Structure formats: structure tokens, C-alpha cells
Amino acid sequence: MILRQITSPGLAHNSYFLGSQGTATVIDPRRDCEVFLDLAREHDMRITHIFETHRNEDYVIGSLELAARCGAEIFHGHETDFAFGNPVRDGDEFTIGSLRCRVMETPGHTMDHIAVAVTDTAVADTPFLVFTGDALFAGDVGRTDFFGRENRARVSGMLYDSIHEKILPLGDGVIVCPAHGAGSVCGAEIADHEFSTVGYEKATNPLLKMDRQEFVEYKVAEHHYLPPYFRQMEQLNQFGPPLRGHVPDLAPLEIGQVKNLMANGVQLLDIRSPTSFAAGHVPGSISIWREGLSAYAGYFLDYTVPVVLVDDFNLDLGDIAEFLFRMGYDNLEGYMAGGFPAWFKAGERTDKFEAWTVQELSAVLGEKKELFLLDVRDIDNRNEVGYIPGSSHIYVGELPDRTCEVPKDRLVVVYCDSGYKGSLGASILRRLGYPSVVNLLGGMGAWIKAGYPAARK
Amino acid sequence: MILRQITSPGLAHNSYFLGSQGTATVIDPRRDCEVFLDLAREHDMRITHIFETHRNEDYVIGSLELAARCGAEIFHGHETDFAFGNPVRDGDEFTIGSLRCRVMETPGHTMDHIAVAVTDTAVADTPFLVFTGDALFAGDVGRTDFFGRENRARVSGMLYDSIHEKILPLGDGVIVCPAHGAGSVCGAEIADHEFSTVGYEKATNPLLKMDRQEFVEYKVAEHHYLPPYFRQMEQLNQFGPPLRGHVPDLAPLEIGQVKNLMANGVQLLDIRSPTSFAAGHVPGSISIWREGLSAYAGYFLDYTVPVVLVDDFNLDLGDIAEFLFRMGYDNLEGYMAGGFPAWFKAGERTDKFEAWTVQELSAVLGEKKELFLLDVRDIDNRNEVGYIPGSSHIYVGELPDRTCEVPKDRLVVVYCDSGYKGSLGASILRRLGYPSVVNLLGGMGAWIKAGYPAARK
Amino acid sequence: MILRQITSPGLAHNSYFLGSQGTATVIDPRRDCEVFLDLAREHDMRITHIFETHRNEDYVIGSLELAARCGAEIFHGHETDFAFGNPVRDGDEFTIGSLRCRVMETPGHTMDHIAVAVTDTAVADTPFLVFTGDALFAGDVGRTDFFGRENRARVSGMLYDSIHEKILPLGDGVIVCPAHGAGSVCGAEIADHEFSTVGYEKATNPLLKMDRQEFVEYKVAEHHYLPPYFRQMEQLNQFGPPLRGHVPDLAPLEIGQVKNLMANGVQLLDIRSPTSFAAGHVPGSISIWREGLSAYAGYFLDYTVPVVLVDDFNLDLGDIAEFLFRMGYDNLEGYMAGGFPAWFKAGERTDKFEAWTVQELSAVLGEKKELFLLDVRDIDNRNEVGYIPGSSHIYVGELPDRTCEVPKDRLVVVYCDSGYKGSLGASILRRLGYPSVVNLLGGMGAWIKAGYPAARK
Amino acid sequence: MILRQITSPGLAHNSYFLGSQGTATVIDPRRDCEVFLDLAREHDMRITHIFETHRNEDYVIGSLELAARCGAEIFHGHETDFAFGNPVRDGDEFTIGSLRCRVMETPGHTMDHIAVAVTDTAVADTPFLVFTGDALFAGDVGRTDFFGRENRARVSGMLYDSIHEKILPLGDGVIVCPAHGAGSVCGAEIADHEFSTVGYEKATNPLLKMDRQEFVEYKVAEHHYLPPYFRQMEQLNQFGPPLRGHVPDLAPLEIGQVKNLMANGVQLLDIRSPTSFAAGHVPGSISIWREGLSAYAGYFLDYTVPVVLVDDFNLDLGDIAEFLFRMGYDNLEGYMAGGFPAWFKAGERTDKFEAWTVQELSAVLGEKKELFLLDVRDIDNRNEVGYIPGSSHIYVGELPDRTCEVPKDRLVVVYCDSGYKGSLGASILRRLGYPSVVNLLGGMGAWIKAGYPAARK
User: Fold this and answer.
1) Residue B164: which CATH number?
2) Does D312 touch chain A (CB under 8 A)?
3) Residues facing B99 on adjacent strands
4) Which helix (H) or strand (E) holds A104?
5) For labelling, which of B154, C268, C298, C367 has a CA lying 20 to 30 Å from the CA of C135?
6) Domain containing C443: what range?
7) Is A69's Cβ below 8 Å from some Cβ in C?
8) What pLDDT, in 10s, does the model give residues B93-121?
9) Which among B1, B192, B198 has CB closest to A173?
10) Residue D392 placed within a domain
């Protein structure tokens, strides 16, 4: 038996490859599916079944890409009217070598959500692992905010029942294979464990210790942001994303080519660090650091306008192409050949803003200068950690819609927890014509570590 | 948290890499340790601790190689007087990022055996996984035959206590990470599961359902073969194997160079298939197929005489070098350039014997010809599956010591379960001058599938 | 400037990647074109031009596959009416960074043949390398036998002129980049040099020392075999091969699946060694060793019947898939899971024949037994090296059409130069029902090395 | 025959692997020698000979590392008293398969310099390629400034004779394989060609068109910088560098560990871009960008003080380790875990300076402010391209020794050709306590492209 967890960094999404005796199944395959074919080759297996635990909303599912390569059948819950694949129902069973995969309908995160419990008939008639999708994570459970505020209590109850009536009864010794790990936008409290067990979750997952009413109240009160690209993912995953066959090849673009693209409308995605972006960047570019792309690109990148990457040294851009490909961004035009230095070596007009350390901010605040302190962290972080006294709060993902709240005639100091989202926020403001913007290096984390005071509501 | 199981095929041995927050530990590292350094690099971690669950007997431990590269400390049980590393005792604890690793003395398989239970303090104060070494496997437990027949009941009882008093009380939800998977010579009944849990083992492992007396009786009655290279491994692992730094590079050897080596004493290790070996081979060579090297090379290969590999197409010989390196065979001289075809293209003297199908054997047996049918399977397989009527039994590993039982003046038909060990047995007999030898392709498996009768005691 | 020669083993075909200042061209790309995209990525280049030196006949050109990935334009000679790409004429020039690529029409091997001379304008106005396609090789020149015997003198003269009037005048210091290396079916005498120069060829290539009349007479007298798949390649390369996107994935096939395929018509391609094939094989299978596929598969494999591979250990089958993909065999169904041993372990009916050493043959010949000695080498080898006295000659590629010359009622001993083509020939005869067939291990080479006499006409 | 050029980027150094018929030689192997062993494995070859064209001064030769792995013999010129290997003399010949390698003493760049001419006896008795080391490059010849000004005319004449009497007479069609490509510190005018030929060099290399006197005068007048690490390389290469077995593994270092190291003396090597460095860096760190390490690390890095790398995202640090390993820097301690952002997230004290665009500089100059414009380019570049009016010149490599020429009480604007060396120069000044430093992004190149005036002497 071969079990492999394939993690997509950034998304913190897990696909699984499970094989036995020459055949294999893939659960929630990612779109760049060569990895599954490689595993099949390595272990002399034929992929025959693909399961989608639910219509994912945070990435493009790779089922069609994979099926086109290996001829496997696709299976998903029957509650969504998928334009491809086969609907399955509670109790449906499928055979993979000596393994028996049983479908369990587990609605709550989505209506079509299924879990798949696996029994190895060569050993015993009792299940040994379960793919829990976005129902149960290590240390957390799935979001229940996709059906509107009016339905939230109802679907939270459904999730509670799915977990308590379907998953937990499988037995303490059953290995739990969730669709997300720590860092996913699909669960803020997911523990940094690749696998868990039913027993360990029962013992340690705070959500599982609540009774039904507590659970529902907790979930109803929970706050989640909904990146706008989720709608696009849901469409693609329900009706079938276009087949690409491979992650797009990135073309190097000379400065002249970049300027032509700029003249016709282009999104310049600057993936450099906050320091590098602050000291110089192409006017109008958006600052999202590498690890932040999965969480933030979906707020700011349009699917219909070509994207050009800007880096310092153009290192590992294939990773960036993969990140964006998984989010359905097939509109990557290329990258700036020679990196941002090619831009300044060409003597082109360059934008910049200041990057302050917390010491600098503190000194300026001490001078009682007029400035607008803008906290762009998510609200949970602000509430838990505290904030710099006097700062206003707008979540970075909502900044484009709420700039009326940010004065243009004052120096705006943007800060987050570390300095990355601050750079993103500052880049958004600069694009919108804010004349004086500063990013705080280190953000709230550095502010506290350096011993400055945090305010709390 | 990063948990990776690194499996060495053939040996079916598992090493583990476990990392958290920038530091990592490796459990039972294999000798070609680059894989651990790669993992550390990939995840920006520093390997600080190496645990050896016991003085392994089936492979050379890679602790010293790894420590020389990364500066980690080595830890092992205090009951063996290791010439390197640090002894640990029950209850000793070590910190890896947010993880707390607690040593549990678990004697039985060896006296110095330890298990390591791991708690993630970032989540809870209850353990979530345990490295069980050779104490507990998925579906089986460790061997208890290393201390002589007279001690077998006593050490079997110790193993029972180690499992029942130390490992099982950790809780059903604890993930079990054993040192061996299916196919290891360290446990005949190991299930083909990479991971298990305490709960699943309690529910399904037949050894865990026995009471202490049943367990001890079962273990005392159990039959195991003891490959002679085990002694060499124990020596190396106790006193420290020589540092090599890398798997040996294999040199291509022209036919003239091979013949020179043959004149001075060499071991020709023929890794081709039973069909290819039967139709032609260098006189005096030993036939062990690729996957069989880990289980059988240790019976036949001398550590002091140079080894030369013979293949058909010289494919993936690096894998072979790794297999033998892990077993301490640092005496690889090279491989026959051009493969065995180079030998026959040079017009050199070639040995061969017949390879019969089961249909051919049946026909010959029908003719009542005089022949000696030699079953070289392990005795458990003979007893479970049955045997070809009229066959004698000598386990292939014992064949060199028991040839007095095999007549030289009759046609000897060697068979096993499939045809591979039959080829090995036949090659041993040819080396010893047996004039008429046949290998049965497909062995007992094909005999039964083709509908011929099996005898049973 | 980046110049890379990409060699396809077996075919001994060379593609070239040539890049300068961010742009690149590929000459004669092979069908599995990822390698060129990788080079472009590695060197931050965009592939803008693809040149085909001629309508190749020994492999499927990868221009369309590559153009679909990178958007490059395709260029080839105007004398063939290609269904894709752009025709070019003598003197056409193209710019790649600082490089100027000039087209030279060089008919002879084909009518549409072009060479491409490259000047680096950053250094000087004199060319420094030339892509010579199949016009000029290291130590040989292209074949001129594709237009029928009646045109051979004429096209040989054209080739002479192309070389002497176009290529050689470029200057002695110009690097020669030919489309084939040693081992290609496109030139028997190609030297084992990756690159050459005009000067070195003028000094050492025997074909270049002839005057026009000598050259034409030599080329007219030259003997070449024409594998039947050449016609298929010419069709595909003129009208455009189907786009695949990737080398086919090979599926493992259980014995039951293989037998089903056999019932419906399948080609079993056995890629094992002559010894392994002789001692047992699936009835009806064809024996072609790995390195022999490029030269011999095209004689025996049908494009319309599925192909199943049979190996011993299923090693590196991706290479085999690549070889066949380059020859247009998109009909690979999969491979026998578990290799040929799975067949005999299933107790299935197995065919075999004897493999003799030269010593055995000599002994049998000494006994004056009735046998038919069949030499299947190419005729040039037979003429140069001599033959075993009493042997008949039929080139292995012509064997299926000339079996009327081989008696069925006698033992047929097939031999070649080494034993591989002998195995192929023997497998063909067995398929056709010849009851008694032997392959000579080592063939004529071993015969001579062992000191036995060679006959000559 | 297999010929492979192995290029070490940055150094622009070429090693060569040349193999024939199962044996191979390596010319000027680099220190991380796994690449040669891989080639030997891939082509079933045994490396038997290693040639050093001369006692290299710009990198650590890998002969001893390689010989330790494969058992090859090392050969070098007899004029230096090497502590290892074998001296060779003019006319010595060595056989590699069908190849004959003839040593030619070619003093000038060094006294011990040899070239190796290769003849393929399977083809002809005339040489087809020559390894020219640092005697002849594509478009340039070797430096002749290592023996003091008083000997420069004499050794330049020796180089002239070596080239004209030994290398050029080999014939126009001979392929030239030099030890360096474009970008090497060993020749400013080396063309961006991987290979050349004697004929092409005769036709295009301006140095080869001079007569002896012109050549000597030109070489005597030529200006070269001599990085201080050259002396260390010469020592190591003459007496044998320490054997490491592999490129050092880099350890991630937490901020606390970095600060401890800083307390005890450490070199912080910041490999980020000029923009990133300007906006924030660890006080006292040196700014050398990735591609600049080979040319500039040797001026500033001490061999006896530990080195810690600082990057933005810690990408591809293995490449950096390789660069420094090749220059003998075995004192790499590790890298800042989390990159420079970890530093500012910890709230640590951060240094910074301004990065100006050329537009900003022009505006400031227009305001007639007091500032010190410091040009740190090499003098050839300044002379060829011109300079910003009013700027002083100190080559960046000489800056530490000439700071007395740079006023501390004025704003110092450092510029180079592009902005990278400017960042390095500015970092040097900051370390030395200069209070006001600016780096000019884009440097002289941007200045000219933006249309500002260049001065010339």
C-alpha cells in the first residue's frame, strides 16, 4: 500500500495518492497533475479512480487534467450538479487493490461534501484511514460561511452532525487525512500536522469538545474573509476548467516589450521583498511576496488582463507559475528579463516609498507629526495581538473598496503583522495615487518585540 | 511539522525525518544519508538529534555518516556498549522545535531497544506519534530469536511487556511509525501499511490479541532464518562503521579486467533474471535478482573478496550499489562493461543450465525419469502452500552447508515459490560442480496455478 | 551565446538549441520537446525560430509540438509542399540576438534540404558555425537513395555541389553541426564526433577528397536499407504529426489484461536480452533489444496494432516510450506488470529456443549435423568481416519477406554480428512457426574472437 | 566520443570531460566534482587522467577531490613545483580510448602552462581539438601580469610564441576549448562563444592579428585588477587544497544565533539586490549580489572569519555555497533563517541608505548641492563609456585601501555601470562609518540611457 500526501505550498492544500496492488486513486488532485503520474509510474500502478471531496473554492481542481492523462473515472458528491464526472452517494464503495473505499456524505462545509473511509480487506474489516476533505482538519473544522448568514447556523449544524455521526464513529485508531494543513485560508486554526487520527482530534481539537449548540454558536460567530476569486474557482470546478496539459511556460520580456504591454493594459505583479519594493518599483505594480500569492493574489489579480512578473533575480519562477496556475490564472504573459534591475538600468521612471523600522516610527510618533496609521491585518490578528495606538483598521483585501476611509493629504503609514501585507497595502495606495505612503518593516510583531506598547479595545 | 518516512526498498527499512520550527531529528538513518540532508535543506531545518531505536542487525546504521555531515548528536539505548553516541534511559526527553521526544526503554527484540514517543506541545500535552523501531510493526511484532533458544521465552516476555506497558498505553489515537514495512526479514507477517495507529493495531494485529502466555508461546515457536551477515552488521553498528561519505562509484570493467580479477579471486554477482541467467552466464557466478539482494546477498557474499556485478543492460546500477552499501558491502569493484553480452561477444566460455516451465516438469515427471526435486523455499512457505510431491527441502540460505544431502549423479531440479530463489539455488549447485541442474520457472506458484497437485505433510 | 546539442540515442539524431541575448532557435527539434523549453527557461530565452533542415524520414519532427508550446515560427525548404510552417530560400536571413542565420539550399539528400550558416555579428562578419543537417556528417555525407535508382546519380551530384559550393566555402574554421552522429541509419560511416569543422572534414572525410565523378560513382554504388517506417515518417513530417503534448504514459498490465489484448490482436515487443528471450518468452513476441529499437522497430512494428512491452524488471521504460514516440508509435498500450516473470509465475504457456555459444556451434558443425546457418547481418558487414562457412544470408529486415528461402524442416541457426539481431531473427521465425530455431550468442564477432575460420566471397 | 564543457557560472570557468571507448579524461576539474562522476556513470566510462592546464589563480582546482573519488592520475606542467600529481613535458602523450592527447608547453599566462592537443586515431592522424587553458580564449588571450611589471614584456612574448608556434600551427579546422568564457576576470574581451576554432580565431581575434611587437606592447599596456584572493588560490593549487568531499551544507541560523556570531566576529554577506539592501540591512553587512560573488567576494571576504549569508527568500543558496566553495571559502557558517525579513520582524536595529534613480541624481545636481560623486567602476569602463561630470574614481576593489580619498562630511553618491557594484561600494563605506551614502540605481548605463551627459577625459 502506498499513501502519499502531496502538499501545495501556499494553498496548504493536500492531495492524496493511495495505491494498492497495481491500482491507485487520487483524492482532490491539484491541477499540475504530473506528480500523480510520476507516483503511478514509480510504483507501477494505474490510476483508476479520482475523488473530489467537494467543489473546492480556493483552487482549480485537477481531476479533468489527470483523467485526460490516465483515463481514470472522476467521482464527487451528488448535491452539486457537476458538468463532468460521476455523482456518488452515502455508502457507495469502490475497490483499489485490497482497499475498499466507502463514500460518506458529510455536508456542512459544502452541501456536496463527501469523506472517503478506507478499509484494507487484506488486514481486517475495520477502516484504517479516512479522507476528511474540508470537514475535519487537524485542530480545526471546515468553514461554514459559504451559504449566507441566514443559513450559517443550519449548515454549521450539518457539519457538526457529519463529524460526529460519520467521521468520529470510525474509531480512535483511524488516520485522518484532511484536505488542508496549517496556513490555509480554509481554516485559521489548522495545526501544523500533516496527518492526525480520530483519537488525537477527539482528545485535542477544541471544536470537537463542544456540544452541538456550542459548536453552532462558535461557527456562527467565526469570522472569515472571502477572497473574490472563490467565485471563479467555484464556477471552474463545477463546470470544468480548461485543459492546459502543463503549467504555462513563462517568457522573458525585454523592457520594451513590457512597456508595450503596459500601454495596452497589464498587471505587474512584483514578487520581491518589502525592502526591495520600497526602494524602487515599476509605477503601478502590485507588491505580493512569493508565499503570499495563494492567499492574496485572488483579491487583486484580474483573470482577464495579462500578468507580468517582476522579481529581483528571476529565481524559481516556475514555482510562481505553479501557484497561479493552481488558482486558475492562465493569463501569465511572462516576466521582466533581467528582473527589476533591468528597469532601472534602462533609466526608466521608477516609483518608491519609504520603509520604516519600528524605531523610526516610534521616533516620528514621538514628534507628534500628523500621520494616518493604517492597520491592514485581518481583524482576528488585530484583536488577539493588539494594535499600535491610534491606528485605523482596514483589512488589506478590502482596501481597494474602502479607500474613502484613507486620507490622501496625510502621510499614510501602513502596517501589518510583519511587513509583507503592509507592502501590498502600500502598493495599492500608490497605484491609487496616494502621494505619501510608508510601509512599516516588521509590523506589529516587531513593534511588540522592540518593546513598544500595544493598544487593545 | 514535517514527518517523512524514508523507505529503503528490499530491506523494507524505514528511517524517519521529523522536523519542527527549524530543527529536526532523524530516527534510524540509513547509511546513504544525503536524503536527510536534502530534506533539511528543503525545509530550512538543522538536524540536531539522531535516534537509533536499537543496534540494528540487518543493515549498517547511518548515524555516524549523518552526524559527520550535520553535527547532530547520536542517541541510543544504554544496554549495549556502543563505541559512539550517547546512551539514553527511560523518560529522557529531548526538544525539537515544539516537539517533545520521550525515550521509552522497550527491550525484547534487543536489550537496548528504545521507542520514542512524540508530543506536540503546541497542540496538547498528549503524545501523537511513536517511533516503535523493531518492537511493534503494522500487523506483527519484532523477532525475539537473537539471544539463543534458552532465552527466547524470557525476551519474548520482555517484548510483550514493552508493547503492553509502554506503547499501547500511549492511546489509540497515537500514530505508530515502525522501523520496517512488509517484506522485511525482520518480520514475516508485517502488513503493507506505511503507518498504523495504536488503536488499529490493537484492533487488528493478531499478536496483540494474545495474552502474555500465548504471546510467549507463539514467539518461542516462531521460525526465523538468521542470515550470516547479521553478525557483521551487529559489529559495525556497535563499534561504528567506516565513514565513506558517499555510495561507492561503480567502475565499468572490460572483459580483460574482469578475467584478471577472476584470476585473483572475485565474486561475480549476476543480477539478471532467471531466464537470462539460465541461458548463459559467467562460470562460477551467483544468481541473485535485484529485489532479492537485501534478503539473500548476506548469505552468500563475502565481505573480503571484491564483487563484480553482471547485468544485461547495466541499468540503474546505482540502486544496486546503494543496496549493497546499506549492507556494508564496501567491496564493490565495478560492473562488466557492456553487460553479459560483452562476455559472449568476446567468445568467452559460458555456463548455462535449463529453465523448465511447470508443464515441462510435469511431462518429465510423467516419464518417471530419475531426478532430484529440491525445494529451496523457506520452511513456512512449504508448510503453508504445500510442495511438489517427491521433493526434498533445503532452504536456499542453508544450501551451501547441506549439499551432502543433494546427489551429484542425478538431474537436480531446483524450485522455489516463483523461480528467483530457484535460480540462486541452481547457481550455487553449478558453482559446486553439479553437472545437471534445472531451475523451475514460476516455481510452486506456477505449479499450483497450472493445476498440478500439491502435497502436504 | 548558448549552443547545445541534444542527442536522441538510438536514432543518433542531433537537435540543436542556439540562443543569444534572450532569444533562441531550435534546429530539427525532436518530438519530446520539453528539453528545449527547459533550456530556454534555464537561460531566460524565448524560442522564436525553428528550422527543419529537411523533411526527415527516420523520426517524427517535433516542430509542431514545440511551436505549440512556445509560439515560435517554423521554417523549412520550399521544395517540399509542407502543410505547415514557412518556406525559406537561399539567402534568407534571420536574427537571433547578435546572431545572423543564413539559409543555404543544399539539395541532394532531399530536394528541400537546407543548411543554416550562423554569423555572430558581435564578433565579426564571417560565419562561425553551420548546421549541415543530413548533407554533411563527421566522416560521411547524407544518403542519396531516396529518389529511385534512376535519379541516384543526379541527386548525388546535387549533394556534391551542395557540399562543395555551399558548405566548404564557408571556411576551414567553421564548426560543423550535423543532424546525425555515429550509429544513425542515415550514414554508416559517421564518425563518433559530436562536432566537427569544415577544415577537419576537408582533411579527413574520405568523401570530401573525391572529385565529383568519383563521389557520384561511390554514392551510386553505396548500399542502404530502407526501413518501411520511413514512408510513414515522411507523411507525418510533410503533413504534420498529431500533437500529443507529452510522451505517452505506460500502463502496467496484469497477465489477464495482456491475454485479453492478445485475443484481440496485439504486438508483444520483448526488449529483454538474447539470453533472457531464448530461455522463455510469450509465444508470438518479437525480440528487439533496447538499443536496437530505433534501427529495427520500424521494420516490424505496425502503427495500427497496439504494442505491449515485455521486460525482465521493467526498468527505465520511459526511455522505451520516448524511443517509440520519436518514431511515431503512439500505439503503446502498456507493459507487462511484473515483467516476463509474471508470465511464468502465472503458469502460462511459454515459448523458448536454444541459445548457443560459438563453441557449441563449432562442436555441432563438427558432427556434420544437418542444419541451416542463417546470417541476418547487413550485407556490408558480411562482406567486410566474412561469414561462417556454409551460411546463407538474408538481412534481418528482409526476413519476413524472404522466409521461402529458409527451410522449415531443418534446425535453423540464426546469427548476426553479436547475438541481438540473431535473437530478433529467431523470434521472427518462431512466430512464423519454425519448429527448430537457435540463436548464436556472440555471432560472427565471437566466432572470430574464439578463433574459428571466417569465409569470404 | 563524448566532449562536454562544464561551465561554472560567475567564474566563467570551463572544465572539460572528454571520453572515448570506456575511458575519460577531465581537464581543469572544478572542486565540486560530482558532475564529472555523473558523466562517467552516464556514459559507462572510467576517468583515468586529469589535466591541469596551469596553476589556476581564480578558483580552487578540483583535481584532488576528483582523484580521490575515481582514482585518476593528475598531470600538470613541470615548471611549478606542485606538491601532488605528475609533471609533464612538451610532447608527452596519453591515450584515452581512441584519442591521443599530446602535451604542448605554452608558457606566458603562467610558466607551467600547458595546452593539450587531441587526435582521434580512429579517424585520422591530425588533431581535431585543443584545450588551450588560459593561453587562448575566444576573442582574447591570457593575462600576462602575474610576474611583475618588470617581466611583463618577456612573458607576453612567451605567450605570443606559445600561441603562434604551438597552437595556431595545429590547423584552422582544430576546435579550440578554452578555460574561460565571457565574463571571466581572466580576460576582459572574451567573446560569448563556448567553443571556437583556430581558423575562426585567426580570422577574428584582434590579438592574433598583431605582430609580436604589437602584441607585447598591447599586453604590457593592458590593465588588470588582481583580487587579493588570487594569492590564496595559488597556494592551495600548488600545495593541494583540503579534501572536503562535498559542497558545505548550509545551516539555517535563528536571529539569536546570528547575533551570537556577530558578537564573536562574523562576515555578513548580503546577496540581495541593490534596492533590497538600500531599504534595510543588518549593520555592518557587505552587499554583493549573486552573480557578483565570483568577481568580488575575493576582494572582501576573509578566509578565516565565519561567513553568514543574508538573502530575502533564501532561494537557491546551494548555488551560493558552490560559488564560494570553488573560491576556497570553506568558512560558510550558514544563512539567516527566514531571510532579512526575520531581522526586521525581530525588531532589530537596521541600517539603510538611499537608492537614487538617475532622475533624482540629476535633480539634486541641478540644485548644486555639495556631494561627492564616487565612480567605482573598473578604469577601462570609465575610460570607454565616460563618466558623470564631477565624479572621482576609485575602483570598488581598491576602496577599502583608499577611503582617505573619500570625504566623510559630505553626502557620498556611489555609482558604477549598473547599480550592483555601487551597492557594494556603499556598503563598504557604511561599514567604515560614513554617515551619508547613496547608491545610484542603474549607474552610468541608466545615466546615459536617460539622456544625461557623459564626460570624458
Assistant:
1) 3.60.15.10
2) yes
3) B96, B120
4) strand A99-105
5) C298
6) 354-449
7) yes
8) 999 999 999 999 999 999 999 999 999 99
9) B198
10) yes
Mean pLDDT within D106-132: 97
- CATH number assigned to the domain comprising residue C333: 3.40.250.10
Give the C-alpha separation, D198 to D175, whole Å. 6
pLDDT in tens, A389-440: 999 999 999 999 999 999 999 999 999 999 999 999 999 999 999 999 999 9
Q: CA-nearest residue of chain A to D439?
A: A279
Whether residue B263 is found in the same domain as residue B360: no
- Using the Cβ of D337 and the Cβ atoms of chain B, whether some distance falls under 8 Å is answered with yes
Average pLDDT over residues B172-181: 97
Q: Which residues of C touch B280 (CB under 8 A)?
A: 275, 355, 357, 441
Give dist(CA A349, CA A336) in Å, integer. 15
Chains with at least 3 CB pairs less than 8 angstroms from chain B: A, C, D
Could you tell me if B99 and B121 lie in one domain? yes
Residue B324 and residue B307 in contact, taking contact as beta carbons nearer than 8 Å: yes
How far does the CA of residue B343 sit from the closest CA of chain D (Å)?
A: 16
- Residue D139 maps to a domain: yes
In chain C, how many domains are there?
Answer: 3
Q: A14, A121, A128: which to substitute to probe chain B, counting the most B Cβ within 10 Å?
A: A128
Residue where one domain finishes, among candidates A186, A217, A239: A239
A27 and A109: one domain?
yes
Both C48 and C161 in a single domain? yes
Tell me, yes or no, if D273 comes closer than 8 A to chain A by beta carbon. Answer: yes
Is B157 part of any domain? yes
In the block, which residue shows the cell 590547423?
D171
Residues of A within 8 A of D318 (CB-CB) are none
Same domain, A264 and A140: no
Please identify, among B198, B214, B239, the residue that sits at the C-terminal boundary of a domain: B239
Q: Please report whether residue D244 resides in a domain.
A: no
- Contacting chains of D (3 CB pairs or more, <8 Å) are A, B, C
How far CA D368 is from CA of B318, C6, D242, D363, D439, in Å, comes to: 70, 59, 56, 9, 18
Mean per-residue pLDDT, D423-449: 98
| CB proximity B239 to C under 8 Å | no
Instruction: Say whether both B201 and B272 belong to one domain.
Output: no
Q: Indicate if A386 and A406 belong to the same structural domain.
A: yes
pTM over 0.90: yes
pLDDT single digits (tens) A194-222: 889 999 999 999 999 999 999 999 999 99
- Tell me if residue B123 falls in helix, strand or coil: coil
Find where cell 571520453 sits: D19
Task: Assess C202–D contact: CB distance below 8 Å, yes or no.
Answer: yes
Residues of B in contact with A20 (CB under 8 A): 192
Chain B, nearest residue to D314 by Cα: B44
Q: C-alpha grid cell for residue C323?
A: 524511443
Cα B94-B98-B102 angle, rounded to 5 deg: 30
Mean of per-residue pLDDT scores for chain A: 96
